[in-house]
Design brief:
The protein is an all-alpha fold. The chain is elongated, with a radius of gyration of 45 Å. It is about 85% helix and about 0% strand. The mean pLDDT is about 85.
Length: about 120
C-alpha cells in the first residue's frame, strides 16, 4: 500500500495491525496452591452470602411495603363502599329536586298564561 493511501484511510492500518499474527506465545500461569484457591472460593462464597442477605432484607422491606399498601387499599375500599349509600341518597334527593323544579316551571308558565288571558279579557 502506498503511504498516501494509508494516510487517507487510517482504519486500514488499524485493521491490518489487528489481524497481524501475534509473535508472542501465551505464557501458562503457574498452578496456584490449593490452600489459596480454597481461600479464594471461601471469600467468594462469603461475598455471595452477604449479597444474598442484602437481597433478602430488601425483599422483606418490599413485602412489608406491599402489605401496608394492601391494608390501605382495603381501608379505602371499605370507606368507598360505605359512601355508596350516601351517594344513592343524594341521587334520590337530586331527582326529587329536579321533579319539583319541573312542577314549578309548569306552574310559572300556567300563571303567566292565566295573567295574559285576564289582561286580554280586561283590555277587550
Amino acid at each position: 500500500m502506498s503511504q498516501q493511501h494509508q494516510q487517507k484511510h487510517p482504519t486500514i492500518i488499524k485493521r491490518n495491525q489487528l489481524f497481524k499474527p501475534s509473535n508472542q506465545k501465551r505464557k501458562k500461569k503457574p498452578p496456584k496452591h490449593p490452600i489459596n484457591e480454597a481461600k479464594n472460593i471461601t471469600d467468594t462464597l462469603l461475598r455471595t452470602k452477604s449479597l444474598m442477605r442484602q437481597q433478602l432484607e430488601q425483599t422483606h422491606a418490599v413485602t412489608e411495603v406491599i402489605q401496608n399498601d394492601g391494608s390501605l387499599l382495603n381501608e379505602t375500599k371499605t370507606e368507598h363502599l360505605g359512601l355508596g349509600g350516601v351517594v344513592a341518597g343524594a341521587k334520590g334527593a337530586l331527582s326529587s329536586l329536579k321533579a319539583q323544579d319541573n312542577r314549578e316551571v309548569v306552574l310559572f308558565y300556567a300563571a303567566v298564561g292565566f295573567y295574559a288571558l285576564v289582561a286580554f279579557y280586561v283590555v277587550w
